[in-house]
Amino acid sequence: MTAAIVLEEVSKTHGGQTVLAPTSLTIARGAFVALVGGSGAGKTTLLKLINGLSAPDTGRVLIDGADIADQSGPALRRGIGYVFQEIGLFPHMTVARNIGITPELLGWPAAEIAARTEELLDLVALPRAIAGRAPSQLSGGQRQRVGVARALAARPSILLMDEPFGALDPVTRVALADDVRTLHERLGLTTVMVTHDVGEALLLADAVVVMAGGKVLAHVSPTELLAGHPDPAVADLIAAPRKQAQRLAELARG
Length: 254
Known about the structure:
The protein is of the alpha/beta class. Helix content is 41%, strand content 26%.
């Protein structure tokens, strides 16, 4: 296993309160990993530490073997795409400008940015005709797809997603989640996704990291998680999706 992301005893406090206890975690290159847990579990904090948006109080974060503390923020984030729940599209920019903003800041030629924008619209299953529209003219699902396209614009090897589907209706959510998993495989990404939806994590991810109280309680495959876990907090978290899976299996058997 080649590691894309390694956290070595990283911790974080805010206002004297520990939001992430000393944590070690290794994410293999090409893996799709879901971080699950309740509010305040430390999921988003961990994601921001990977992206250099927050610096650890202790420990270090390695990306492809290099300590991110030795890199500038802009240089680090060229190789890391970030998708937010709030999407965060610039309302005064067209869809095309939103997608191409990172390549533009990196000094790509205009023709290359235009070609990459069209390529990305195709990748995220959006019509090229929306390139000149404002984000306000799009549906929520379309805006989130633009957010994914923007995160992929500079061809990153790592994709971080913080509750990317949380604000979408169930049908749109499932369709976009399936497309993101397909993009992950097609582009050979290493993907780390924060979600409150354990069922979503089980269906999408290769591995699930369960967090509570700023600690990692489990880091296992979906199959292992559904089989049961000795930690009561983990068992409680997966109780509902386990029952749903069992009920669906019973219904399928007639």
